[in-house]
Fold this protein.
Amino acid sequence: MNKKIVILNGSPRKNGNTSALVREFTKGAEDAGNTVTEFFLNNMDIHGCRRCFGGHNTKEYPCVQKDDMCKIYPAVKSCDIIVLATPLYYWNMSGQTRIAVDRLFALEEGEDNLLRGHNRASALLMAAEGHDFDDVVLYYDHLMEHLKWKNLGHVLAGGNGDIGDIEEKPVLQEAYKLGKSIQ
């Protein structure tokens, strides 16, 4: 069955190592018959969450802020799978990714919680210069538990500091296989 997949790409580099993971994952997912929509967060105008609790998920735009999250909310509301793709910065997801994830909270507000549960799944694609992914994987796994989403796994690509370092590495095939496994 065709799945709708949303990728939140939090890399600041359109042709960087994280984006290479996204390209391979997308190829695999589309080869399996799925529909993929990617949001390149670095080119979007997304403001930090104000934690005002003023949002409401039944509104067309669930957050009180009117920025480019208004493009993301409808896709997330109707998708089956959300992929977080990010470089590892200071033992966490990039700021671009963190802001978008925080802003998804608006979909939890209101009578109909449109974020938690709903038979959604997620995967984490991450590239880094180093290899210490423990803290961010712990956060991601806890987030999946909170949201009650199926955790499809992680593709963690360490040892990739410069643009293009990831090319020809087996981890790209891992990203492709993860995308291809989505049926």
User: Anything to note?
Assistant: The first strand starts at residue 4 and ends at 9. The CA atoms of residues 23 and 176 lie 8 Å apart. Helices lie at 17-31, 69-78, 95-103, 134-147, 170-180. The mean pLDDT is 92.
